[in-house]
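Q: Hi! First time doing this. I have a protein sequence and I read that you can turn it into a structure. Is that right? Here it is:
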Amino acid sequence: MRNEYELLFGKALRVNEDITVHNPTIGDILEFGEQRYYSAVFALTASPSAYKVQLDDMGIDYEDVSDFEFFCLMCKNLSVDDTRILLGEVDLSKFTFAHDPNIGQDILYCPDSDTKINMVAYMELADNIRMINGFEKIVENPGNKHFKKFAIERERAKQQRKKKQREKSMLLPLVSAMVNSADFKYDHASVLGLPISTFNDSLRRIQKIKEYTQYMSGVYSGNIQFKGGKLDDGVNWLS
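A: Yes, that's right. Below is the predicted 3D structure, encoded as structure tokens:
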């Protein structure tokens, strides 16, 4: 898998010669503001279906908008202060929609820095941000217009309920669980220096170790029958 080294050791991920996705530490994220950070992550990686309600209110069918076109729309509202933790001094709000005759494609272009973002670069940027944060791309296929309308209204009701709820931290419970796990080698102070991708790797690995331990306890107790003499990747904590 590409970028395994960079992800494991918390390195930045290069998109092209002008753009690099930084890999912030847990401390960086908490100092920046967790909600603010994940808002930036979501804005930079979200597909149009994630904003189906807002687009519907604008009279736009989210299936008629590509991921790259949606990213171009989102950039207008993202200041450099919003994205600095991930993209450094790249100011997406200064990019404008343009056509590059050399490749025959629409791009985002910043005349101040002579920086271009085409569809391929955007896909790389979004994938890198997802990988750093341990997210998967969500692809939604509504099937038909009736289900699409139902999905939009369901999401609208969900957003209304969320407005009445107090925002909860997603990161802090994970940090608390990990520092109180005997398998995790960091405490409350040292965990702040861990890059988010390294922390996520530790989280996944320790979960796998615990699943393996539980599985083997079941094997030794006779509650689980071990067949074939070999663990599959779903159980093997070294996979």
